[in-house]
Amino acid sequence: MSSSPKYMAVQGAALIVAAALSAIGVLGFIPGATADVDQLAFAGQHSGARLFGVFVVSVLLNLVHFAVGAAGFIMARSYARARAYLLAGGLLYLGLWLYGVLVEHGSNAHFVPLNSADNWLHLSIGVVMVLLGLTLAGSKV
């Protein structure tokens, strides 16, 4: 006799995504994980800090990653909220990707430091989150 799983697959996926995004947000403040952390700006396009030496980060961007991650831990408690988290979070990251692609670097509207590596990462996170929210609906762990 097998016991019924406690969580739906979408809830497990939300927890995994939440842990990854929270870690990214925290690592953006840690020397070693972030190169030139002394050049970390709050916002704006002139932050010199790079997570893993590749992704440009700022205090604002780190806080966004951490906040979205923290929300995932809370939202993963129920199926409907976990699914909403993955879908809404995915759309948020797709919006961040569009922002990075469409907003001209050097303009006053460019208040989040992004490079092409950031854009690819945000596109990937957004697509994965939306796909998880859509494809895991009703699946058990």
Walk me through the structure:
- This protein has helices at residues 9-27, 59-75, 79-102, 116-135; strands at 34-35, 50-51, 55-56.
- Helices cover 57% and strands 4% of the residues.
- It has 141 residues and is mainly alpha-helical.
- Helix 1 packs antiparallel against helix 2 (59-75) and helix 2 (59-75) runs antiparallel to helix 3.
- The two termini are 17 Å apart.
Structural class: mainly alpha
Number of helices: 4
H/E series, N to C? Answer: HEEEHHH
Major beta-sheet overview: 3 strands, antiparallel
Give the spatial strand order of the biggest sheet: 1-2-3
Shape: globular
Number of separate strands: 3
Task: State the end-to-end CA separation.
Answer: 17 Å
The oligomeric state is single chain
What is the residue-mean pLDDT, rounded to a whole number? 90
**Rg, please?**
16 Å
Question: Helical amount among residues, as a percent range?
Answer: 55-70%
Enumerate the spans where pLDDT stays under 50 for 5 or more consecutive residues. Answer: none
Estimated share of beta-strand residues? under 5%
Q: What are the salient characteristics of this protein?
A:
single chain; 141 residues; mainly alpha; three-stranded antiparallel β-sheet; 3 strands; 57% helix; globular
What is the gist of this entry?
The protein is mostly helical and 141 residues long. The chain is built from 4 helices and 3 strands.
Q: In terms of topology, how is this protein built?
A:
Blueprint: H1 9-27, E1 34-35, E2 50-51, E3 55-56, H2 59-75, H3 79-102, H4 116-135
Antiparallel strand pairs: 1-2, 2-3
Helix pairs in contact: 1-2, 1-3, 2-3, 3-4
